[in-house]
């Protein structure tokens, strides 16, 4: 019987051993940041915090694409849903995120044609089935998702669909790590790097930021043993004083990543500046359709003139995403901001730090 | 969001694979992943296979951890059977 790749990485005896090692080896206080919403959830779901020594603090960084989507981008998605003969297609976790006025979910309830899709292919299929309507896909994702969106655009091109386009709020991980390390007051002793972003980018994509800042960095998978192993490697790097860029998810991640996915991504998209909610603009941290594919950019097809917006008062999502605050120290947490009435994006997405704290902490 | 689960390829037609996820069969596009065949385990994200899982690497990781467990047991004076 071959490997199933799940149960083997949940082995209780091996987990106990890793925990024992971490407890024995961890001496200095450490602040370790995971940069992936799926890690945030996995750490809570598997009770990882409860087995770590007090010396280790885990922080949830800007790793949930919904959480870092700028309020203005949400307003753009909502504005599309108000247009005649437009179908807005989106991944489900974006539906409840508040823009400056309302949400896609409320727009849908009010009669707008907003449809949740599992894959960009579903959005392309909707465009094919509705030739008299324009279909806008809300493109929100990191490197894991961006190549799939590029593949969707190539498919729309192949099918000669002139009624499919995207509004890109796509974002790249390495520029965000660099921006974090350059922010005053940010104090991070190690990054647990996102496993499925790294599947695409490869370990090498982090090398420039690592060689600039020398922050201990380990790519991790998502099962309990993967996460514990990555924490142990970060502890050892800190205790020995020898920072490194390491890969603890070798069964899925290579140095070069997925060349085909990267080629498809770069065929369709080009770098652009992007606004990260709570953090601000980070140069060359976004991806939009390049000149050969600009007809698939919703911005080129519709002329929306939306006002600039400011983020909700009192919301600490920005500081939380940078590891400067934890959710329970935000004045709004559990008071005015709950999963039923979220104020900031970290409470909306199921992978947001505040939602995870609310559910598990 | 980037939740992606190991899935076993059971059939391939053109660029679409049928994958088994713990007994549930669904489709996954192979447009952004090269060099896969029936029987391979892949990670599927948002309808696309994005990575092939490397069995040798997985076995090596587990083997390294088991060596650590054995060393830990020896250090603590326990026999392998106690662990």
Descriptive keywords:
heterodimer, A: 361 residues, alpha/beta, Rossmann fold, 3 domains, globular, B: alpha+beta, SH3 type barrels
Q: What is the secondary structure topology, with strand pairs?
A:
The complex is a heterodimer of chains A (361) and B (83).
Chain A lengths: L11 H14 L4 E5 L2 H9 L2 H4 L4 E5 L10 H11 L4 E5 L13 H6 L4 E3 L3 H10 L4 E6 L6 H13 L5 E5 L4 H9 L8 E5 H7 L5 H7 L3 E4 L3 H17 L4 E3 L11 H10 E8 L3 E10 L8 H4 L15 H5 L23 H4 L4 H8 L1
Parallel strand pairs in A: 1-2, 1-7, 3-4, 3-5, 5-6, 7-8, 8-9
Antiparallel strand pairs in A: 10-11
Chain B lengths: L4 E9 L2 E6 L2 E6 L11 E5 L2 E5 L2 H21 L8
Query: How many beta-strand elements of chain B?
Result: 5
Query: So, the CATH homologous superfamily of the largest domain in chain A?
Result: HypD, alpha/beta domain 2
Architecture per CATH nomenclature, i.e. the level-2 architecture of the largest domain in chain A:
3-Layer(aba) Sandwich
What is the CATH C-level name of chain B?
Mainly Beta
Structural class of chain B: alpha+beta
Quaternary organization: heterodimer
**Structural class determined from secondary elements of chain A:** alpha/beta
Estimate nothing, just give the exact number of structural domains of chain A: 3
Measured distance between first and last alpha carbons of chain B: 37 Å
Question: What is the gyration radius of chain A calculated from CA atoms?
Answer: 21 Å
Integer average pLDDT of chain A? 94
Number of helices of chain A: 16
Task: Explain what this protein looks like in three dimensions.
The complex is a heterodimer of chains A (about 350) and B (about 80). Chain A has about 350 residues and is of the alpha/beta class. Chain A has 3 domains: about 5-65 and about 175-240, HypD, alpha/beta domain 1 (Rossmann fold, 3-Layer(aba) Sandwich), CATH 3.40.50.11750; about 70-170 and about 255-300, Rossmann fold; about 315-360, no CATH class. Chain A is built from 16 helices and 11 strands. In chain A, strands 2-1-7-8-9 form a 5-stranded parallel β-sheet. Chain A has a 4-stranded parallel β-sheet with strand order 4-3-5-6, with helices on both faces. Chain B has a single domain, classed as SH3 type barrels, CATH 2.30.30. Chain B has a 5-stranded antiparallel β-sheet, with no helix packed on it. In chain B, strand 2 and strand 3 form a beta hairpin. The longest helix of chain B has 21 residues, at about 55-75. The chains are: A alpha/beta (about 350), B alpha+beta (about 80). At the A-B interface, helix 1, helix 6, helix 7, helix 9 and helix 12 of A face strand 4, strand 5 and helix 1 of B.
């Amino acid at each position: 019987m071959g490997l199933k790749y799940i149960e083997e990485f949940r082995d209780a005896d091996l987990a106990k051993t890793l925990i024992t090692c971490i407890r024995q080896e961890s001496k200095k206080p450490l602040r370790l940041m995971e940069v992936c919403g799926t890690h945030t959830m996995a750490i809570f779901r598997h009770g990882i915090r409860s087995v770590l020594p007090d010396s280790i603090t885990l922080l949830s960084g800007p790793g949930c694409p919904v959480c870092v989507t700028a309020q203005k981008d949400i307003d753009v998605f909502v504005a599309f849903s108000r247009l005649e003969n437009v179908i807005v297609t989106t991944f489900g976790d974006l539906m409840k995120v508040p823009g400056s006025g309302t949400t896609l979910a409320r727009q849908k309830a009010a009669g707008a044609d907003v449809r949740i899709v599992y894959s960009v292919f579903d959005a392309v299929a909707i465009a094919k089935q509705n030739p008299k309507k324009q279909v806008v896909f809300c493109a929100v994702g990191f490197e894991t998702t961006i190549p799939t969106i590029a593949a969707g655009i190539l498919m729309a091109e192949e099918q000669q669909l002139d009624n499919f386009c995207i509004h890109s709020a796509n974002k790249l991980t390495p520029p965000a790590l660099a921006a974090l390390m350059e922010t005053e007051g940010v104090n991070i002793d190690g990054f647990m790097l996102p496993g499925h972003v790294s599947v695409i980018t490869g370990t090498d994509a982090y090398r420039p930021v690592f060689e600039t800042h020398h922050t201990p960095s380990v790519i991790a998978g998502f099962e309990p043993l993967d996460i514990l192993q990555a924490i142990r490697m970060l502890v050892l790097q800190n205790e020995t004083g020898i920072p490194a860029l390491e890969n603890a998810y070798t069964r899925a991640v290579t140095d070069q990543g997925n060349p085909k996915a990267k080629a498809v991504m770069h065929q369709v998209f080009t770098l652009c500046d992007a606004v990260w909610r709570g953090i601000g603009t980070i140069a060359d941290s976004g991806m939009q359709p390049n000149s050969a594919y600009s007809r698939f950019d919703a911005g080129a097809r519709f002329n929306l003139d939306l006002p600039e917006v400011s983020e909700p008062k009192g919301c600490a999502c920005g500081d939380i995403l940078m590891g400067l605050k934890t959710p329970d120290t935000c004045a709004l947490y559990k008071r005015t901001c709950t999963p039923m009435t979220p104020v900031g994006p970290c409470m909306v997405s199921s992978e947001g730090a505040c939602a995870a704290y609310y559910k598990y902490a | 969001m980037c939740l992606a689960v190991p899935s076993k390829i059971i059939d391939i037609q053109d660029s679409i694979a049928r994958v088994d996820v713990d007994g549930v069969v669904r489709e996954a596009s192979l447009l952004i992943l090269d060099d896969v065949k029936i029987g391979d385990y892949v990670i599927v994200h948002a309808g696309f296979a994005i990575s092939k899982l490397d069995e040798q690497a997985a076995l090596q990781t587990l083997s390294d951890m088991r060596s650590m467990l054995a060393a830990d047991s020896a250090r603590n004076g326990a026999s392998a059977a106690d662990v």
